[in-house]
Amino acid sequence: MAAAASSTSLKPSPSPTTASWMRNRSLSTTFGVTALSFRHSEPRGRRFIVLSMDAKPTILVAEKLGEAGVKLLKDFANVDCSYNLSPEELCTKISLCDALIVRSGTKVSREVFESSGGRLKVVGRAGVGIDNVDLAAATEHGCLVVNAPTANTIAAAEHGIALLTAMARNIAQADASVKAGKWERNKYVGVSLVGKTLAVMGFGKVGTEVARRAKGLGMHVIAHDPYAPADRARAIGVELVSFDEAISSADFISLHMPLTPSTSKILNAENFAKMKKGVRIVNVARGGVIDEEALVKALDSGIVAQAALDVFTVEPPPKDSKLVQHVNVTATPHLGASTMEAQVYRTLHLFFCMFSTCYHVKINVQTHKQEGVAVEIAEAVVGALKGELAATAVNAPMVPSEVLTELKPFVSLAEKLGRLAVQLVAGGSGVKSVKVTYASARAPDDLDTRLLRAMITKGLIEPISSVFVNLVNADFTAKQRGIRITEERIVLDGSPESPLEFIQVQIANVESKFASAISDSGEIKVEGRVKDGIPHLTRVGSFEVDVSLEGSIILCRQVDQPGMIGKVGSILGEENVNVSFMSVGRIAPRKQAVMAIGVDEEPSKKSLKRIGEIPSIEDFVYLNL
Ligand SMILES: NC(=O)C1=CN([C@@H]2O[C@H](COP(=O)(O)OP(=O)(O)OC[C@H]3O[C@@H](n4cnc5c(N)ncnc54)[C@H](O)[C@@H]3O)[C@@H](O)[C@H]2O)C=CC1
Ligand SMILES: O=C(O)C(=O)COP(=O)(O)O
């Protein structure tokens, strides 16, 4: 929940009223991705607009993508299809691109993000594995990464089964032998699959489909996946077992986990030693999950009888690779996702498994024609460039659209409270510790606050820095700037119809340029609610106020007395500044009070000075929203 503290601190700009952060606000969408794609960073960190709202963004397609996807991209953007770029060429081109689409053959390294100069805002991976994209660098640069996680599942599973059966019956080797004019019937005696144990390592989308198909071949299927639910496995007659049990009892092992630091070289010398002698291995996941040197030794020693590999640590592997050249290895050039159906469209059998309360399992089989990877990724990238939250975001929260609709006014409230709170901090105080409180009648697990936290962070950071914050980089940026954001829930009684009653933002250990913003417990405190869909400021420090969060706000501390509203109102009226809202929060009649005035236009410095000089006004601050 909380972003951990680091050593940097934030210093509010001396004059938030005139700060340049307001310049581009009209371009911002709520979530910032669109706005980001129209913004650019100068080397010195100043932001400016490089494209107008109606200028088309540019999308670089760096690997072959199905035509239907390219067409969809062209309807929205300028599309540059440039394949086989060297890393240097990619780095050069990227500074002119708002989005990049790749498959597994392009390394989207930190240098790519650095070279983009802040313009690259979406990377689309037209497939599942995102191990070729430096996610940490993407997040640090506020770049959303989306993938196409479903369209090639069946293709990959079918390729896994193709390799399994081809390996068991020596199809590739026998084919080569026949083509060489030989007829070696005794040499290519295979092994049967029926009754053999297959260990599926990684019981996700592909692993599950492989397991289903292997069961159809009469195999006994077990699976290992630390994160998969046992009931999903049980539903198709697969037992989830420990890693050691899986590898030590299998006749065949099929790998379907992602390449991550914890799965890197997960099949290594130590683990090969635990396997049954003569085990056969299929890999359509990633080459890096196997220690390839250790596999060559295991093949030489006979521990591993055969391996069928679609993926390699380095692709393409070196021509003299001992692994690829091994007589007992069948190799394909990363073809798992390469079917017409997966890349263009596919006919998908969706299995809906429904469980009755007494654990009877019914399976409905439906057939759908579904668009392939190209369309899936094109839609995701275009949506992200339009500022929509992507359902397949890899480095940002995925928020379902119904939740988003409901949260929208609170998202705006959150950002504005962040903006107000930070502008109340006296120059020279570093913001380090922010507490956000959400009061809601919803059950704690029925309120996703990631979006709200990101927007509060955006509100806190943007007024006082040149960094553009969005959903992708909010937590990272807060952490980098040493701001610790903690969240707390107040669970209210009553009807949970609205997701939230109020949001409170507190900044601890700082001084305020408006002393009344400091609550009894010593923090700057602002609180807001949504009324009729519009965000309102409802508390400043210990004072209750009510002013809609549109336009800007003047806060005045005064001794409560008649005529104050009129005095301030007439100064503003003299220069045609429209007052949208006015409210007075006071401790008791004729005692200390805080007057909050919403204004549609920015008052001149002269008018603000005159307001400050009204004798009974003790303190005042003008805040930009
Ligand atoms: N050869 C090819 O062309 C293709 C390769 N793939 C690769 O297949 C892999 C799986 O893809 P999907 O099934 O779509 O992904 P997925 O995310 O649906 O499934 C991956 C599963 O691996 C599990 N897992 C994570 N760490 C594990 C560990 N240490 N041990 C065992 N299981 C672990 C996860 O819990 C998850 O259930 C990915 O690496 C993907 O890149 C996918 C499509 C095509
Ligand atoms: O989707 C994946 O993870 C794949 O490995 C497919 O890669 P490709 O898009 O065919 O380069």
UniProtKB/TrEMBL annotation:
Catalyzed chemical reaction(s): (2R)-3-phosphoglycerate + NAD(+) = 3-phosphooxypyruvate + NADH + H(+)
Pfam families: 2-Hacid_dh, 2-Hacid_dh_C, ACT, PGDH_inter
First and last residue of the signal peptide: none
Biased composition (Low complexity): 1-20
Top-level taxon in the UniProt lineage: Eukaryota
InterPro entries, sorted: ACT-like_dom_sf, ACT_dom, Ado_hCys_hydrolase_NAD-bd, ASB_dom_sf, D-isomer_2_OHA_DH_cat_dom, D-isomer_DH_CS, D-isomer_DH_CS1, D-isomer_DH_NAD-bd
Enzyme Commission code: 1.1.1.95
Domain ACT, chain residue ranges per copy: 553-625
Keyword list, A-Z: Acetylation, Amino-acid biosynthesis, NAD, Oxidoreductase, Phosphoprotein
GO terms for MF: NAD binding; phosphoglycerate dehydrogenase activity
One CC-aspect GO term: plastid
Pathway: Amino-acid biosynthesis; L-serine biosynthesis; L-serine from 3-phospho-D-glycerate: step 1/3
Biological process terms in GO annotation: amino acid biosynthetic process
Residue numbers spanned by region Disordered: 1-21
Record bears the keyword NAD: yes
Subunit architecture: Homotetramer.
Family: Belongs to the D-isomer specific 2-hydroxyacid dehydrogenase family.
Protein name: D-3-phosphoglycerate dehydrogenase
